[in-house]
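chain below, 180 aa
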Amino acid sequence: MDADSKAKIAFCYEGRINQSVLESLLKQLDGMSPMLGLTLEQRTRLSMVLIEQCQNIMKYGERNGDVGPMPDYERPGSVAFGRDGLGPYVSTACYIKPADRDALELSYRHIRDLSAQRLEEEYDRHRKSEDYKASRFDPSVGMGLLAVARHAAQGRDGQRRIDFEMETDNRAKTTVHVLH
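prediction:
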């Protein structure tokens, strides 16, 4: 593994994701910012990505395994943040419905390849639209995914540093590196 791909995890949580857990994660990120060497802008971007990704887990994550009774706004998932050779990042994972797998994978691949100008155009059009379903993107990931992409770093290859992978048990993992 080269230096750019070695993850340096500063914090990791696995369990139920809900609003109070999200608030605790944000406090943890804030408290660890000096250790991670984050600028105010990086901390803000990481916080925005963390919020969006946790909201996606809470809204669209699937209850999987023996997790017991759970309120509608709470789902099992995991969150990690840290810094590696590519910069600061947030990584999240949760189970998704098998039927959503292809659409979610396509949405992440598409959003990762948008030019900065096209991303801003899509974001503005989507934000101003009364009907989010008018978007080309699956409405379940549309506005939130566009917001995440706006904070993601862009590599020399023009792709945003948004890595998405599906594990065999329908667990979706996303890692987003933020702008430096």
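The longest strand covers residues 75-84. The beta strands are 9-17, 75-84, 87-95, 162-166, 171-177.
thats it, cya
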